[in-house]
Amino acid sequence: GAGVSQTPSNKVTEKGKYVELRCDPISGHTALYWYRQSLGQGPEFLIYFQGTGAADDSGLPNDRFFAVRPEGSVSTLKIQRTERGDSAVYLCASSPRQGSYNEQFFGPGTRLTVL
Amino acid sequence: TQLLEQSPQFLSIQEGENLTVYCNSSSVFSSLQWYRQEPGEGPVLLVTVVTGGEVKKLKRLTFQFGDARKDSSLHITAAQPGDTGLYLCAGGRNTDKLIFGTGTRLQVFP
User: What distance in Å separates the CA atoms of residue B34 and residue B86, rounded to the nearest whole number?
Assistant: First the structure.
């Protein structure tokens, strides 16, 4: 079956622009997570959805970052007024049920470069 | 602030050698997972441990969760080039998000 997919795979933008990153989770997975991974580091939690609602958004760095999951499946991470420090790989993961002991299935990520 | 520190940060060894990667924290976790990540891909789960002192084996890989559930180790016996990758530990704490470690980049030469 299809795994988690993310589009685009690469995104280059200029400082100050708006970007949207898309995540298609595994069909039927109710939990969806966004992480950010800087070069040589482990992923850093951003936000978690259970169904359509954001259950925990404590990892979003500031109000330029926003994520939605309107129908409980596809999710979009939105970044306004991008800054060079936003450059990273943005990873999405889904899980069939909530609980941090459950396996999270990761997508390949979107590499964002802000010039 | 990274709550989970991994050591070593980099490891470069010859095929056939044994190695151990450590994941340490001053905080208690309810579960600990180990992932492996290859370039251009997302992390892939290797194992989950939930009980203090628990040991799990996966072929040549042995995982241990510390008695106090603050630390973990991953031991690889007779490493192979296919083991090359970024190894990540990740802790859970009765919430749904994972706290990832700093990562250990392993390179195994033939």
Answer: 11
Lowest mean pLDDT among A36-40, A65-69, A73-77: A36-40
Tokens of A72: 């409980």
Kindly report the nearest CA distance between residue A56 and chain B, in angstroms.
Answer: 8
Q: Which of A61-65, A96-100, B87-91 has the lowest mean pLDDT?
A: A96-100
Q: Is A42 on the interface with B (CB under 8 A)?
A: yes
Query: Which of B45, B94, B98 best tests the A interface by mutation, with the highest count of A CBs <10 A?
Result: B98
CATH class of B5-109: mainly beta
B44 contacts A106? CB cut-off 8 A? yes
A90 strand-pairing partners: A36, A110
Label the pairing between strands B104-109 and B10-14: parallel
* Token pair listed for B101: 């470690």
Beta-bridge mates of residue B20: B75
**Length of chain A (residues):** 115
The answer to whether the beta carbons of residues B35 and B80 sit under 8 Å apart is: no
In Å, how far are A18, A59, A60, A115, B4 from A15, measured between CA atoms? 9, 22, 19, 6, 32
Question: Which sign, positive or negative, has the C-alpha torsion B70, B31, A86, A114?
Answer: positive
- List, for residues B31-90, the tens digit of each pLDDT value: 899 999 998 899 999 999 999 999 999 999 999 999 999 999 999 999 999 999 999 999
